[in-house]
Write the structure tokens for this entry.
Amino acid sequence: MFYWLIELSNTFPSFGAFRTLLNVFRYITFRTGGAVVTGALFVFLFGPWIIDHLRIRQGKGQPIREDGPQSHLSKKGTPTMGGLMILSGLTVGTVLWANPLNPYVWIVLAVTLGFGFVGFYDDYLKVTKQTTSGFGGKLRLLIEAMIALVACYALVRLNRDPSSTALAIPFFKDVVLHFGWFFVIFGAFVIVGAGNAVNLTDGLDGLAIVPVMIATASFAMIAYLAGNAVFADYLQIKYVAGTGELAVLCGALLGAGLGFLWFNAPPASIFMGDTGSLALGGMLGAIAVAVKHEIVLAVIGGLFVLEAVSVIVQVVSFKLTGKRIFKMAPIHHHFEQLGWTEPQIVIRFWIISVMLALAGLSTLKLR
């Protein structure tokens, strides 16, 4: 919405100072900062009302697994669906500050809200039925895959470049894998995988939201660089015109995430729920596909990959040998069983996320 102020500045050629003031809305960096502030303020202002409303509607709150860590039983009664707070702040910040004519913004936002709706329905079933299992996993994955496939098809058609269906390999500037239209399936796998990996990470207060914000900040930078022809040429990364605007969307998420963390800090007043974790993971996956940095996402989001792999390894090991590799999966529960306190696990995982983000960003120049 504020982007239209650029057009307004052209109608006041004689008012130099006023025109200069309005011209700042041309800059992605300025609008990204505005989106951060807007997203944070929205959640800070409306967060308490949303929490109270959800607490009344949900009654007993999110069901707690009886077979999980015993320390989690004290969290019984805490409302879930906190992702609604994040998605609201994200949407408001994006609508106000992003270029409304940029298709990348709407494609990624559609994936985010689509995955958020899937997570919301899953949370709804858990709360209303007071069970830790929502609707069928296969059906949920099918819906997510359909959303991701449509988004990837749109991204490929939007780019209209042979490299839009190719996979770039970090550290090597000239090494790419040409997938053809199979890339649509690969991209969908990235988006669905990212969504569910973040979902598995969301098990402790503050554990998921901070790594998500770290990854989002990293991809805000990558999107800005990939969408700028000069910077992309200097770094020898794929230039994707228009993707710089995704930095504004990332900024809105950063602000909304900060606001949510205020209420999610231990002891949490509200849980993110599948509503938030699926949506935020799907958003990261969609941005990575849009800016052609799918492998870098696996590095920056390595913590999410570790959480997902720990579950896969645990399930496969138990089915094949009847034995478990970890005391409990996902892996953050394994460390709880080893005696680590919840704050220790959360903060140490945050540190790992920062290190992985730095490693991922370093690939931008090592080509």
